[in-house]
Amino acid sequence: MPTAPTVPWPTDGLSFGGDYSPEQWPREVWHEDVRLMREAGVNLVTVGVFSWALLERSPGVFTFDWLDEVLDLLHENGIAVDLATPTAAPPNWLLTAHPEILPVDATERRERPGGRLGWCAASETFREHALRIVGALAERYGEHPAVRLWHVSNELGGGNARCYCEVSAADFRDWLADRYGDVDAANSAWGTAFWGHTYTSFDEVSPPRGVGGAPNPGLALDFERYSSDALLRHLDAETAVIEQHSAVPVTTNFMVGAGSQVVDYAEWARHVAIPANDHYTLVDDPRREQDLALAGDRMRGMTRDRGSWLLMEHSTGGPSWQQRNRAKDPSELVRNALAHVAHGSDGALFFQWRASTAGAEQFHSAMLPHAGTRTRVWREVLALGRALRALGPVQGSRVEAARVAIVVDEASGWALQSGLKPHRGLRYATEVRAWHRAFHDRQVTTDVVPLDADLDAYDVVVLPTLLIVDDAAAARLAAVVERGATLVVTYLSGVADETARIRSGGYPGAFRQVLGAWSEEFTPLQVGETRTLDDGGVVIDWAESVVVDDAETVLRHTDGPLAGTPAVTRRPVGGGAWYVSVRLPDQSIRRIVDRIVEERGIARTVTAPPGLEAVRRVRDDGSAFLFLLNHTDGDVGLSAAGTDLLDGSVHGPETVVPAGRVRVLREERAS
Ligand code: GAL
User: Hey, what domains does the chain have and what are their CATH numbers?
Assistant: First the structure.
């Protein structure tokens, strides 16, 4: 496989640390911080995320001495710095002088100071100020030996993902003019003849605000694309300024997880040297470990050559932004961190190093809790530090090549969840997650890849509710069966083109032919309503009246208005082209996945019950590291052999992974 130029990893071995905010503490505490960081084995901290107001007290007047001191102190102690540009939190002097940079929501209410990311991505006023502080920082620290990574802003889009102000509206019009050339092309793409919305000039176009929840679908989708691009332009602008002064790699922290679809991260990932992610488990998610695995598989799927990415933030315990901020169970901290590593992160960082005593997040957990070091959290932080050091040889290895790809694309999520739809309760992320879960529970590794990914290496390609797809992508996806792969298409896929226009002639438009089946009508189910299938399984939420042209019926409806008609079909071409026209509960999806995995002879990483997660990372020299994570509360025995890097114990041909624990077996394999 061709490899891109290698980006230097910021640390020797895996990275370990978190957001460090010395500006919240007196100097004496800094010395205690570095002492404890060393004790824990911290080797990378993110500094400066929210420090704009302290670095630039008035326009162009900089105060860097405290940051000089912090960087020098960290460097003297062998701790590398991920230096953040502070643009997530514009200073109050800037917001007071220019309240017009604050973002405006769809109801045309302007945000107020006091939060963060309080800026509109289209604001040139903001950009000018932002690039000044970024330039000053990059110039001063671009070659500082402590700085091993640059961190642009923080969670771009978390708070300012969409701005509906007049500046954004004008910028959106320019973006449209670039995309369509002339307004008639936009009229025709969006079908503005409907409701008499024809535009005679781009000047008449507005972001979808104040439209009572019924925007033009094409226009609304373009506004989502524009909004992602507007933030990306800001990321690029900061990156370009940094690169004038520094050769150190640049990243920014994404928010991939728990169904978040803020921006087009697959595109963004191409603009950073090392993609990074923030992942927080949700307390009311009974399968939070699977959401974590999905986030990891997605990060890897969008990383160049499926290489290393970095877990920039997660938590040691309860965050403070959920309703009931559950603490992590004993050993969950280590298990969560190592799960990210298993899925391709070359490190585990937290928000944050030391628990804040003041400010909005004063109750958020941290590596060093309010109670100090005589705590379980601190002991687990030390244990994680030891584990990550022991796993040093894993750095730079890759997750073993997956044979299954799940294709995701933000446009489908945006389109499915906006405007008038046959079923407004459907969530794109839910369907993606359900299919991922079935493979995950069977210990089959999946790459969760963008729509334009190279699919040649996969034996199974799954398209969960891929509503929006252009002709070229549809043809590429359909072609996977011609070379013998299996294609699984679920309901509502291929229904609309890239302009959100419905493809006529029967659903699922773009995939009708390859599937040899199509449907004439959607028949969404009501709350609590279920239908039965001929294998005893049920249908929830969604069904369609399917007509088979050239496919076998795998599952049939046995009751309701669709009794006797196909629900799941398979065209016997290549490895099989499946159409799943219904929304299925987990156990039914699992039955389909089990059949496909067996038919295709896809080896499980290990054979174990669900809840025992297994991922293998490999190096080109043939070394292999088998991560076994037991998320259950009972010990799990399975066939696996090797030396556990975490405690030196030797296993094989059987091993037991104790409840809640992790083993990382270095396997002996021929190179
Ligand atoms: C992240 C953010 C951090 C902190 C954290 C709390 O979204 O980047 O600054 O707020 O959440 O969980």
Answer: 15-395 (3.20.20.80), 404-600 (3.40.50.880), 612-667 (2.60.40.1180)
